[in-house]
Amino acid sequence: MKRWSLELQPHTGGLEVARMNPDETIEILASCTYEQVKQGERYDFAIPLVRGPDVRDFLQEAMDLGYRMGLRPSKGEDVAAVKQHLQDMRAIAFHTLKMPSQS
């Protein structure tokens, strides 16, 4: 069972967050307040949106929503792996087409 539901509401542009419980009830995020602090200032009043093992499921749902919206990672792509993959594909193509290797 999917634990989290994140949906972008087209009429408001807002993000709707809901959590499904094993007893088939649903909890919705009904309010959220931002408090302004100076950068670097220590604060103890922040309440985590998600705790414990729910963090992984919540983030997965957030990534899935972003992907459905066309978002892709902005950093962290493994350039070396992409280069190696392209080199492997060239080798396969040259072998399949019986062309001399261009190493």
Plain-language structure description:
This protein is an alpha+beta fold. The chain has two domains: 1-39 and 50-72; 77-103. It is 32% helix and 16% strand. The protein has two helices and three strands, in the order E-E-E-H-H. The chain has helices at residues 54-68, 79-96; strands spanning 4-9, 14-20, 26-28. Strands 1-2-3 form a three-stranded antiparallel β-sheet. A hairpin with a 4-residue loop joins strand 1 and strand 2. It is elongated. The model has no long low-confidence stretch (mean pLDDT 85).
What distance lies between the first and last C-alpha atoms, to the nearest angstrom?
A: 50 Å
Give the percentage of residues in beta strands.
Answer: 15-25%
Number of separate domains: 2
Global geometry: elongated
Which structural class matches the secondary elements?
A: alpha+beta
